[in-house]
């Protein structure tokens, strides 16, 4: 099984933002050792408890601290930026780290309304223009952008030997259609979607139009998973993430709580039911149970690759979770 890592650089209640970002670097190094295919960093703005607003900056550091694992964005939120600048940044990364760069793009705001307005005065307008933004970005990555002046050529320099691989990240049929129409690889965020993922991925596969003669569809399924030596320990570890998510939904903000604090958090019956619902959208268990569930998902979704996002209070427990999963699932 081919597995990868999505990291959001969550900040635990006993960490600084710097320590959380350093933990992301250590996770990338560990993931490379364990045999994970790629390591992606997410982009968030003005969200308490998440340390990375600029994955392209972190990728330059992570690339220099690793050797062969593919690194990428999960995702650059394209409506905030000009495609030309995004292409320049990732062509530069691809020049520095040849054959290792993925450019995942998305269209979510990634943060508060206030942050969105500061980043882009016309965000919703940019979202409507997403198909045009994607096409322009791909033209720059292919070094085929046509200017208004037929005698002038504009390149997103430097032009790398191996271009970044473009991915579209999404949770809907609309994103699947956009990826398929543009011949892009597609990453479906199952961990944050209530939609029928099987139907969405099937639509992508059936609608795929190659951008290049050798182009073919490629699917990543992104899931939330926590693995430990026992089911009991895995559920304890998961509680920190679950309570943190509940706190964020209530506007309480803050950082990832310890297991001790999470267990002490007062829950209404409605909140208990909500947490149980969220747990059903996660993979939580010992190595045997996690492997079985991942295999079922891979078959069900026809995904060539599964990307895992794991949030724990202790970064060491997170690394251990990825290690246990790799030992049972990654083909050596």
TrEMBL record:
Keyword annotations of the record: Oxidoreductase
Record domain Luciferase-like: where: 1-299
Pfam families, per the entry: Bac_luciferase
Highest taxon of source: Bacteria
InterPro entries named among the record's database cross-references: Bact_Lucif_Oxidored, CmoO-like, Luciferase-like_dom, Luciferase-like_sf
Entry's EC annotation: 1.-.-.-
Gene Ontology molecular-function annotations: oxidoreductase activity
Similarity section: To bacterial alkanal monooxygenase alpha and beta chains.
This protein's name: LLM class flavin-dependent oxidoreductase
